[in-house]
Amino acid sequence: MRTVRALSGLSARGPGHDFFDFGLLTSPESGPAGATLVVKEHNSPSLDMAQSTLLAPPTPVVIDEETERAIDRLITKTDDPVDDLHSERQSTLLKSPLHCSWSLPALPESPELKRRFWTGVNVGLFETPYLPPLIPDFALAADVSAPRRRNSAYFFWDHGKMPDLVVEIVSNKIGGELGRKKQKYARWGIRFYIVWDPFLELGSERIQFFVLVNGRYRKSPDRFIPELNLGFTIWRGEWEGVADDYLRWCDRDGNLLPTSNEEATANARRADQERRRAEEERRRADQERLRAQEEKRRAEEEALRAELEGRRADQAEAKLIRLREKLRLLGLDPEAD
C-alpha cells in the first residue's frame, strides 16, 4: 500500500486550472527513495496546458524542514564525464545565442516588461529530493530566475514549474531519448521537447520535435514555437574551431540567432562598414570641395580674362581717339574714306 505524505504548504494555482496540491508519494517499504511527485487538481478535468497559448507560470511552493534537510544532502554534481565532444559543443551553441540576441515574447498585459528566463546545460532537473534527476543536454524555463541554492540544480519546488523546453542530443542508441526520458518529460509537463540526432543513431530523422497535448507528446513538423518566439534549424558551420552540422536557434523568418562571438563579429563588421561609409562620404565631400574650388578658380580666371580683355578694349579705344585728334591737328578728316 502506498501513502501520500504531503509537504507543508506545497500548493499552487495555475491558469486553466483551479487549484493544485503537491505532495510526496512514499512507499513505506522503500522509504524516501520510492517517493515521487504527485499533482492533484481540484475542480478541473485536465492537468495538461498544451492546448493553451500560455506557458505554465511559476507557482509558489513552500517545503517543510525535513524536506529542506533532504535537499541540502542532495548530490547535484559529480566528476563523471557525461558528454562526448560534439554534444558539449552543441550544448554551448544552444545556450549562447539566447543570452545575447533573443527575448521572450511580451505579455499582453505588460508589453513593456522584459521577461526573465533561465537556461541550463547538463543541469539536473529534480522533481523531488528523493528521486534521481534527469539531466537534459539543454533546458529553457520562461519567467524564472537562476537557481538560488549553492548546490545549483533545477529544483521544481524552488521554481514552481519545470522548464518549458528541453533538448536531448543523441550520441548512441541507449540514451532513452525516445523512451524513458520522453515519458518522464511528458509526465512532468514539459511542453516542448526536441530530440537532435546528428548521426542518425535512432532512425532517419535528425530533428524530432514534440509538443505536449493532453499529457502525451505529439510529433510536430513545425520549426517555430510562437510561445517562446523561438525557431530551430540545422546549420552547417564552424563552432569552437570545428566545422559540423549543428542545431541552431532562429527567428520566425529562419534567420539565425547569433552567438556572442557572432554578434561581436557582426558589430565589428557593421562598425567597419560604417567607418568605410564615413570615409567614402569624407572622400566624396573632399572631391566636392576640390571641384568647387576648381570651379571657383576657373570662374576667377574667366573674370580676370574678361577684365583684361576689357582693359585692352579700353586701351585700343583711347589709342584710336588720340590718333583721330592728331589727324585733325594735321587738317585731315579722320572720318573720310
What do you see in this structure?
The chain has 337 residues and is of the alpha+beta class. The chain has 2 domains: 3-258, no CATH class; 271-337. Helix content is 30%, strand content 27%. The chain has 5 helices and 14 strands. Strand 2 and strand 3 (31-42) form a beta hairpin. The protein is rod-shaped, with a radius of gyration of 39 Å. Mean pLDDT is 80; it is low at 1-52.
Strand content: 25-35%
Q: Report the span from N to C terminus.
A: 149 Å
Domain unit count: 2
Helical coverage, percent range: 25-40%
The assigned structural class equals alpha+beta
Largest sheet: 6 strands, mixed
What is the radius of gyration computed over CA atoms, rounded to a whole number of angstroms? Answer: 39 Å
Average pLDDT metric: 80
Instruction: Please give the order of strands in the largest beta sheet.
Output: 4-6-8-9-10-11
Question: How would you summarize the topology of this molecule?
Answer:
Elements: E1 3-14, E2 17-27, E3 31-42, H1 65-72, H2 85-95, E4 117-120, E5 125-126, E6 138-142, E7 154-155, H3 156-159, E8 165-169, H4 180-188, E9 192-196, E10 207-213, E11 216-219, E12 224-225, E13 230-239, E14 242-250, H5 260-329
Parallel strand pairs: 5-7, 8-9
Antiparallel strand pairs: 1-2, 2-3, 4-6, 6-8, 9-10, 10-11, 12-13, 13-14
Distinctive features:
337 residues; disordered N terminus; three-stranded antiparallel beta sheet; 5 helices
